[in-house]
Amino acid sequence: MREFSVPATAAVAPEENLTDMVWANAERFGNAVSFRRQVDGTWIDITARDFAAQVMAVAKGMVAAGLELGDRVGLVSKTRYEWSLLDFAIWAAGGVVVPIYETSSADQIEWILSDSGAKAVFVEASQHRALVDEVVGKLPELRHVWQVEGSAAAVDELTALGAEITDEQVHERRGQVRADQTATIVYTSGTTGRPKGCTLTHRNLLSEVRSTLTRFPEILAAGNSLLLFLPLAHILARALAVACVYSRVTVGHTADVKDLVSDLGQFRPTFVVAVPRVFEKVYNGAKQKAHAGGKGKIFDAAEATSVAYSTALDNGGPGIGLRIKHAVFDKLVFTKLRAALGGRAMAAVSGGAPLGDRLSHFFRGAGIPVYEGYGLTETSAAACVTFRGQEKVGTVGLPVPGTSVKIAEDGEILIKGDIVFTGYWNNEAATEEALEDGWFHTGDIGELDGDGYLKITGRKKEIIVTAGGKNVSPAQLEDRIRAHPLISQCMVVGDKQPFIGALITIDPEFFPAWKESHGKPASAEVPDLIEDADLLAEIQAVVDEANKSVSKAEAIRKFRVLPVDFTEAGGEMTPSLKLKRSVVASTYSSDIDAIYAK
Q1: Is 60 exceeded by the pLDDT of residue 534?
Q2: What are the φ/ψ torsions at residue 446 (nearest 5 degrees)?
Q3: Which of 40, 252, 451, 588 is deepest in the core (most CB within 10 A)?
Q4: pLDDT confidence of 293, banded at 50, 70, 90?
C-alpha cells in the first residue's frame, strides 16, 4: 500500500484557540482536579477553577508589562507545574510560546531567542538567568526576563503587576486569537546544524489533541492521571499535557528522575508517557535487580512467558498451559513491575523512537500495554499511533483521524493533515524543501501494510551505503542491540566502507551487576575491561542475535566498545535522547578507523 487516510472525527472551528479549554473546564467542572503539584514532598490539588484563576492572573501581568498580540515569549525550565501554567498564560495574553530545553547552552538560548524575535523570556532558576544574562546584550528585542524561582518569583511578580487589568481585557485579548494563528514555535533539538523553529498553530495542536482523544478514550478519560517527567520542551510531552487539560485528566510534574520510582509510587498515575530509553531502563533495572538477588532464572523465565503470551494474543490467543504459566509469573514478577510504575498504570505511551518488538511484547505480556506513536515536531506530535484493540507490534499503528500517510517512490514517509505545521520560522528555503502540496516530507523511511499500519524502517539521512553499494538502515540493528541490559548505546557505521561495523557503549547502571556475576573486580571501570574476553563474548552474542534480522551484507562484522557512554552533556545526544551521529563520528573517528584497519 502506498497511501492510507483516516477521516477526521472532529473539526476545529476558525474562532477556537487553546485557551478555551481552561475556562470551559472552570465553568463546567470547576471542582475537578486539573493538576497535583508537589510542595515540600506533599502533592497539593489544583482544581480547574484554581488553574483558570492563576492563568488569568499571570496573563494580566503580561498584558500590563506591554506584551502585544503575537509577541514571542521564551520558556526555559525543567518539567514543573509552572511550565504548564505559563504555557496557557502566554496563550491567554495572546502570545506565542517558544520552549527552550533547560539543558541548552548560552549559545543555543541566544539563537532561539534571537531567531524567534522573543520580546520576553521566563527562566526557571538562577543558572538559567545567568545564561540569558550572558547573551542579553545581543538580543535587542528582548525586554523582559522573568525568573520562576527566587525572591522575585515570576508568577507573584506578574500577578501583582496585572492587578489593575480586568478579566474582560484578557478575555478580549485571547478572543482575538484564531485557530490558524501561531501558538508556539518549537525549535527542533537538531541532530545536525542549527535548530529550526517549527511553527505550530492553535489548529495544529487542537487537531492533535482531539485525534489523540479518539485513539485513547480509556486512558484520557476524565479523572485519570498522568505524571509527566519528560521535558515539556519536547512536543510529545507538551501535546499530551494539553490533551490532559482538554480531557480533564489530572497532571503531575516531576523533573528529578532520580526520585521517579518514589514519585510514581506516591502519585500512582493511571498511565505513563516516555521515550523508549525509559522503558529500556525499567526493563533493565528489573532484570538487574532479579539477577543480583539470585532470582535471575525466575525473571528470565517470566520474560520468555510474557513475550510468548503477548505474541499469542496476536495469533489466536494463548493456550491453557501458557495461561497458567502467565498467571504464576504474574504473581511472582509482573505485579512488582507494575508496582514500579505506581501500581495503577493501565497502559503506557512511547514515542520519539522505535521501542522494539521484544520490549513491546514484554510489557504487554506483563499487563502494561505500551502504545507506540510516530510523529515529529512538525506533525504536532503523533501522526500515527497504536491503540487498544488495534495493536500490531512492530508497527507504529494507523494514522490519527484527519491524517493521510503516503510512501514516496524512494520510501520516504509523507504526511498530510491539520496536524502538519505551517512552516519553519524565518526559513523559507527549509519550508519549501519540507512541504510540497501540503505533504510534509518527514525524512523517515517506512512502509504501509495492507491494513494501513505504518512501519518505520529507517531515517533517510542515516542510510549507510557501503563500498559495495548496499543500502543499510542502521535503526533495526541498533534497536535490537540496545535492548540488551549491558548495552547503553549503539551506532552502526560503514558508509563507503567494505562492511558494516558498530560503536557500542556500556550501560553504567547494569555494569556493576555484570562485573559481580562474571567475577570481575568491583573497582574495575569500563575502560579497564573494554578488551575483556567475557565482555566481548557477551556483546558478540548480542550482535550475532541482532544480525539474524538482516541480510549478510547488512550484518555487523566488527564492533568496538567505547570507554564512555554517549550523553547529552558530552554532546553526543539531543535532549530527546537521539544520537547526534555526526558528532559521534567526529569524536570517535579513530575508533571507527580502527574497525576498518587492515
Answers
A1: yes
A2: -165, -175
A3: 252
A4: confident
Angle between helix axes 154-161 and 81-92 (nearest 10 degrees) is 30
pLDDT in tens, 446-498: 999 999 999 988 877 777 878 777 778 788 788 889 888 899 999 999 988 88
Question: Of residues 291 and 381, which shows the higher confidence score?
Answer: 381
Q: Which residues contact residue 467 at a Cβ distance below 8 angstroms, ignoring those fewer than 6 apart?
A: 496, 497, 498
Cα angle vertex 242, ends 238, 243, to 5°? 115
For 158-172, 255-269, 413-427, 581-595, which range has the lowest pLDDT when averaged over its residues? 255-269
- Residues whose CB is less than 8 angstroms from the CB of residue 486 and which lie 6 or more positions away in sequence, other chains included: 506, 507, 510, 511, 514, 538, 539, 542
- Pairwise CA distance, residues 207 & 17, whole Å: 11
Q: Strand 370-376 vs strand 464-465: parallel, antiparallel, or unpaired?
A: unpaired
- 17-177+220-269: in CATH 3.40.50.720: no
Average pLDDT on 163-168 reads 97
Helix (H), strand (E), coil (C) string for 129-189:
HHHHHHHHHHCCCCCEEEECCCCCCHHHHHHHHCCCCCHHHHHHHHHCCCCCCEEEEEECC
Q: At what angle do helices 167-175 and 81-92 cross, to 10 degrees?
A: 80
Residue boundaries of the structural domains of the chain: 17-177+220-269, 276-460, 463-595
pTM summary value:
0.86
Helices (H), 93-125: 106-116
Judged by DSSP in three states, 436 sits in strand
Q: In terms of CATH architecture, what is 276-460?
A: 3-Layer(aba) Sandwich (3.40)
What is the CATH T-level fold of the domain 463-595, as seen in this structure?
GMP Synthetase; Chain A, domain 3 (3.30.300)
Angle between helix 48-64 and 167-175 (nearest 10): 90
- Number of Cβ within 10 Å of residue 393's Cβ equals 20
Grid cell in block for residue 313: 494474543
User: CA-CA distance, 523 to 520, in Å (whole number)?
Assistant: 9
Higher pLDDT, 471 or 330: 330
Cα–Cα distance between 340 and 260 in angstroms, integer? Answer: 9
Would you say the CATH fold of 276-460 matches that of 17-177+220-269? Answer: yes
How is 285-323 classified by DSSP, letter by letter? Answer: HHHHHHHHTT-HHHHHHHHHHHHHHHHHHTTT---HHHH
pLDDT value of position 238: 96
Q: What is the pLDDT of residue 473?
A: 79
